[in-house]
Amino acid sequence: MTKYCIYSLEDDDDIAKIIKLALSKQDYDVSTFSNGHDFLKAFQEKKPNLVLLDLMLPDISGEEIIQQIRKNRSNDDVEIMVLSAKSQVVDKVNNLDLGADDYLEKPFDILELISRVNAKYRRQKSHSIIQIGKTLIDYNRRLCEVDGKEVLLTNAEFTILFELMKNSDNVVSRDDLLFVLWGDRQAYETRTIDVHVKSLRTKLGEEGKHILTVYGVGYRFLK
Asked: Cβ distance 33 to 8 under 8 Å?
């Protein structure tokens, strides 16, 4: 099973080491960054489940980092917890309004940090399994089942199905699916998505009828 991935952006070496040591002992996959540039480069290559974010950084402000992450809809599932010495209510409100999910003041108790991270992991884990009709998808295990029998999907098919089921009854555009798959809406023709969906419907058998085409836009997984 893929480990819960945490990116810690903290320019204080001592605090960064404590965070990495404490959360690694909880069996999380923790990567630490001391500046925004390195963090954003790593983020483009692999998205974490959770970002622990200091606001006062040497190159880019924490507020800018939040805005960079939240400007793309495909990052909605990435949680952001601010760890900052800024203790004014206005600081907390402003960052939560920008898109942070949680705010912990420095100095913080490491046990409280662990507790909050554990709670986020449990919530994310519960949301990773979706069942609609006879179709079940388990994101963490990269598993798809129909009526209790495993269905083998390619990575692209799995990702498309998860996005459609996660947003069930809502239309997901071809452009958004392209971005989730490859991080670029122009890198591939939208027809590529249609090919994957056709194969997906075939593999799901009777349950493939839940995937509806919204002409000129994209697809919708009907409950």
From this structure: yes
Residue spans in the chain of domains classed CATH 3.40.50.2300: 5-127
Q: Which pLDDT tens digit goes with each residue over 74-131?
A: 788 799 999 999 888 899 999 999 999 999 999 999 999 999 999 888 877 767 789 9
Name the segment(s) of the chain with CATH classification 1.10.10.10. Answer: 129-221
Cβ neighbours, 10 Å, residue 214 = 12
Query: Within its chain, how far is the Cα of 59 from the centroid?
Result: 25
- Topology of the domain comprising 5-127: Rossmann fold (3.40.50)
Q: For domain 129-221, is the CATH number 3.90.1150.10?
A: no
Backbone angles phi, psi at 159, to 5 degrees: -65, -45
Residues 23/53, Cβ–Cβ less than 8 Å: no
Distance from C-alpha of 2 to C-alpha of 85, rounded to nearest angstrom: 32
